[in-house]
Structures are given as C-alpha cells and as structure tokens.
Amino acid sequence: MDSAIYLALETIEKNKQAIVFVPSRASAEKTAEDIAKIVKSAMPELESGVLKGIGTPTTQCNRLAKCMKKGIAFHHAGLTNSQKDFIEESFKEGKVKIICATPTLAAGLSLPVFRVIVKSLKRYSGRWGMDWIQVLEYLQMAGRAGRPEYEKYGEAITIAKNDSEKEEIYQRYICGKPEDIYSKLAVEPVLRTYLLSLISSNIIRDEKTMKEFFGKTFWAQQFKDMNKLESIMDRMLSLLEEWKFIVINGKKEDTGDFVSASNIGSNNNNKTMKATLLGKRVSELYLDPLTARHLIDCTAKWHEKTTPFSLLQIVSNTIEMRPLLRVKGSEQEIINGELLQRYEMLLMEEPSAFDFEYEDFINSIKTSLFFDSWIDEKKEDFLLEKYGIRPGEIRVKLETADWLLYGTEELARVEGYKEVIKEIHKLRLRLKHGVKEELLPLLKIKGIGRARARKLHNNNIKDIGDLSKIDPTSLSQILGTAVSENVKKQLGEEIKEIPKGRRTGQLSLTKF
C-alpha cells in the first residue's frame, strides 16, 4: 500500500484529520480516489452538497462528489470557489477527514489538522525538470498541523523513497534555514506599475520626492546601494516616458533647455514628472505598463482580417494571464498547425523560435484556442479533455480575460481606436456567457443563458422580435413552463422600452 494512503487511513482510525500534500492536481485527485475506495463510511449529504449550484457537473465534479461521499476530498486551483469553500467548511465540521491537496492549501487557512503528510518535496520546474521546493514552502505545509485552536500538537510527516533521500530531506528541511524574503519592488513589473501609480497620484512629483519615497522602503533597506537603485528607477522612468505614460520636464542650470529621462542622474533638483492622460488611465486600470503598451500597439494594427481570436491572443500574451496553458511535446505539431492557419489574424509579430519569449508566445496560442473554444460553446468536459483546464481555472481565466479586454477597450477609447471598441465589447459578452455571436440578442432577457439561448435559436427564435411572436405553449415546450412564464414577463418589460418600429427587429447590442 502507498505510504501516504496508509498514513491517511491510520489518521482516520485515530479519529483525527489530515492533509496530504501532493505535487500536482492529477495526483491530488488520484490519491483522494484511492483513499475513498478503502474507506467504508457514507455521507450522501456531502456528495449532494459539493454539486449544489453546479449547472452541469463535469467529470471532475462527479469524481469529487464520489470522494466526498466517503469523507475524503481533493483540493486544488481547478475547483470552483464554491466547491473549495464547501470542502473547507466540511473539514472544519469534522465531516471530511482527509484532504488531498496541492500546495495552494498550504497558506492562509487554519484548519483542524492533526497530521500533514507530504508525499513529495519536489516540483516540476520547467526546463530544469523536478527540483526541490524552498524551505519556506515546506514550513508553510508543515505549519498546517497542530494549530493551537484545534490540537495540542500536530505531526508533519514527509515520505522519502530511500535512505539517501531521507538524509537529504533531513539536512535540507529539518536542519536547513528558511530563505531570505525579498521586496517585491525588486521585480520590474511591480516596480514600473507602482512607479507609474505614484506619479499619477502626485505622491511622486520630482526626482527628490521619488528618492525620498523609495529610500524609506524595505527594498532600499535590503538593497542598501542607493546609487544602483536610482539607476534602476531612472531606467524605469525612461521606459514610462518612451511609452508616453509620463512626461519628464526639467531645466539644466543656467539654461532653458528641457532634458529627457536619460539625464535624470545629473545634479538638478528641478526635474518634474507628470502622468499623461494615457498614463493615468493605465494606472487606474491596474495594468503593468508593459502590458498596456503591448495592448495599445496591437490594437493600432487592427486590420480587415482581425477576428475575436486576434484579441484573445493579445490578452493571452501578457504577464497578467500567467500561468498560460502549457503546450506539451505531443501537442507541438497541432498548435503549430493552428498557428499557421490563423497567422494572418495575429496583431503581434511572432518572435524567433530561438528567442526566450517564444515559449510564452506558443503557450499564448494554446490559451487563445481555449478561449476560442469557450465562445464556440464547447462544454467544460471538452475543455478539460482537450486543453487540460478545469472548471475553477476556466472561471479564473475568464475573469482575467474580461479585465484585460476591458483595459484594452478603455485604452483604445483614449487613443481613439473607435473600430476596436465595439468588437471588444461584443467579445466580452461572448466570453461572459460562452456563446457564439448569433446568441447575443437573446441573452438580454433575464433567465436566458447559454443553454436556453441555444435551444431558442435552434427553434428559429433569434431575437426579441421572434420571441415576442411565439405563443406561450410553444415556448413552454422549448424552455419548460416555469422558465417560459418568467421569460414572457421579462419580455413584456423589455418590449415597452423598445420603440414600436424596432420591435420586430434585432435587439441593439448597446443595451447589454
């Protein structure tokens, strides 16, 4: 028997609870299923509870429900928020005895955990293969056991494959020291985002206030070399000025000449920084300035072959969308084929295959294809099978895409790219509901979603005009009595707002 499963069953025999930490989502699901097969208890209320609020349960949902019936759960980022909340509450109530989880559960929660079982302390690290996790991450996982409000003490057990690995784990994690904590300002995307924000809000107005502000940060105290820090900030300012997000003005001593960001290092206290209208909007949207420049440059290349896929690809190829859906070796040829077919639709240039950015570019194509399948009305099980993306991840990705598309829409408005705005607005609606464009007119009616709109359209009801003509009996046959009555009520309210001359036509999209 697998050591992790044995320890989990022993924990249940002690009438205690445990978290089994595993490296991957697939491993979390498999381990939970293996434990559930052995456990004899049955709690149907947990099975039904985890499916509550889920329209059409996916394969993953059904797997979780079967495990929950036995008081066992798996927990990872691929679950919906409602499912994660239900699992955590059931664990606190003592109904769920074992949670098999990825390290996402390692921080921020206090649960009645007697025993933490760590199945592996190695993680996949991209091109370098499997590597040891940080000591801090191990301490976070081990720290879930024996919380003072629940237990007098707890146990953290790590499983080693052999004596050599046992010694390595002991020296590295039991005797090892936690890694130093570094300021996030040391990361360029964070620095340039905050720098623009501070300039936009007038907290930083000139070189002096910039040095005073950053000189008091943890970043400066940790870095110690202020001259080096100033050169980094100068470089960030140069980029922000080049991207037209800020204007830097200043006078050389005894002259009236203006200077650029490249001269900021000189001994001159008169240099001032001010955000442009575009820069202020970027800051208000909480976008990384590099992302904002990317979105603006791509929308400026709008052409007649631009499609929803074009927009989906530019928002997928951003820092904010990471982690992207990774292209596996077996998928490389398929993705390259899709790229070849859609190459003319792209609004950005394809980087060289030897460029370090190429992997992200290819992953952005796969991520875009997932979004494209979603608005083509593909179901969640199809998306899981083809793209390896779970329901919880789908919702996170859709929310991120909507935010980035909204940002693109707002930046296009500032820049005057009017032809882009309407298309982005339409695409956001399609992403929200996961529908083809032909269903948009029907989605205005409350109670009509993706599935019902498709049923109506398949019955040749394509807009409010068609819907207003259909008799109640026929509508009930399509949607069911209760739903059809509500739709007719909503329809009556909508028709009152539409001018008589337009009631038989399609609903204007501006009303969404």
Describe the structure.
It is a single chain. The chain has 512 residues and is an alpha/beta fold. It has 4 domains: 3-174, P-loop containing nucleotide triphosphate hydrolases (Rossmann fold); 184-284, Arc Repressor Mutant, subunit A; 289-433, Sec63 N-terminal domain-like fold (Orthogonal Bundle), CATH 1.10.3380; 438-511, 5' to 3' exonuclease, C-terminal subdomain (DNA polymerase, domain 1). The chain has 23 helices and 9 strands. It has helices spanning 3-13, 25-38, 44-51, 59-69, 81-92, 135-142, 163-174, 188-200, 207-215, 218-223, 226-242, 277-284, 289-299, 308-316, 332-342, 358-374, 380-387, 391-415, 418-433, 450-458, 464-469, 472-479, 481-497; strands at 18-21, 72-75, 98-101, 115-118, 122-124, 130-132, 155-158, 246-249, 272-275. It has a 5-stranded parallel β-sheet, with helices on both faces. A two-stranded antiparallel sheet has the order 5-6. The longest helix has 25 residues, at 391-415. It is globular and about 65 Å long. The N and C termini lie far apart (57 Å). Mean pLDDT is 87; it is low at 251-268 and 502-512.
Give the structure's gist in a few sentences.
The chain is an alpha/beta fold and 512 residues long.
Give the secondary structure arrangement, pairings included.
Elements: H1 3-13, E1 18-21, H2 25-38, H3 44-51, H4 59-69, E2 72-75, H5 81-92, E3 98-101, E4 115-118, E5 122-124, E6 130-132, H6 135-142, E7 155-158, H7 163-174, H8 188-200, H9 207-215, H10 218-223, H11 226-242, E8 246-249, E9 272-275, H12 277-284, H13 289-299, H14 308-316, H15 332-342, H16 358-374, H17 380-387, H18 391-415, H19 418-433, H20 450-458, H21 464-469, H22 472-479, H23 481-497
Parallel strand pairs: 1-3, 1-4, 2-3, 4-7
Antiparallel strand pairs: 5-6, 8-9
